[in-house]
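Board notes (copied after class):
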Amino acid sequence: MNIKVIRTEDQYRAYLEEVQVLMAKAPALYTDDSERLEVLTVLLESYENEKFPVEPPDPIDAILFRMQEKGFKQADLVPYFGTSSRVSEILNRKRPLTVQMIRAISIGLGISADTLIGLSSPDVEQPKSDIDWGKFPVKEMTKRGWLQALSGQTKTSVEDIVRNFIFDSGLQFGAASFRRTLSGEATSPTTQYALYAWLARIIQRAREKKGRLGSFEQDKLSSHFLKELAQLSWSEKGPLLAIELLEKRGIAVIIEPHLKGTLLDGAALKDIDGTPIVALTLRFDRIDNFWFTLLHEVAHLWKHVGKEEAFLDNLSTESEDRREAEANRLAREAFIPRLVWKRCDAHIAPSKESIEELARELKIHPAIIVGRIRRELDNYSLFSDLVGQDEVRSLLTP
């Protein structure tokens, strides 16, 4: 049979290819090929277990994931843990799971006991979190009604309230950081906590819409769809029509002002169950800004967003990230194709008449053309009467 223990990567790959060939042949039992296939499989499994060990799942992560699947709040776990304070302590990794809890959770939530045993032993030192809960903008979050009134609360109580707020949104965190990666030009070390708080609020609000959303199909996102969306800007009620279309296609659209200190225009992400979300801050309450930000974020959903990453964008800043550049290009092309732009009078000799003529030709709002002119010329005083200042927020917010 001439089979040796796997000691090198090349040998591993050679055996892997041979296994694939043998499996394709589907050899009969007790033949030389079937016995060789069995031996090779054992050797490969042994090598993989040694070189690529699979870490056991964290029991708290498993519980949080199942809570998200079932739509449970922390109060729903009280029957398994005994008291609400004990639920909070366990989910915040301050108290280990007991045998009785493991048995109850395994039966009640359908989580394997082996998974729950993972790190639940009291003598296992739990890694300390490097997250500073005191850095969250608690006062502003409370003022906006995101958190319950905190007057008279101890520091520990406030920390638990903020933790629960983040947990409820599904923004789980590991030993030292949040599991959700933030990308985009709006992110910075000094704004990270405010951005996570805002993101948690976005996710919570998007979940309130899930029963009203249509079915999302990733392959329906395309340049044609972006063009369809762009041409809704031709209507006076275009922003409302765009939100209606996106939610019909299964994409939750949330309008939520940015938190102080964050230069945030919009975001694109997916909830833990895969529901796509587009969020806008209306930081610049202008028609041109609304439409470009919206298409930029939809382009991210089409091309870049996965379950573990959220794009948070400051579109006033030039970015060297190729994904941001691609989202910008896709949005620009949906509104004004490059070849059309290079040859049109609105680009060569911009005037109110040439802008309105191109808008009619492309069936888009003139503000979008003005926005492109102003950005390319780096002159934001041009055609100010055409950008639709203060016309979006009043249309979209009560």
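Comment from the instructor: Residues 119-128, 173-179 have pLDDT under 50 and may be disordered. The beta strands are 181-183, 252-255, 266-270, 276-280, 309-313.
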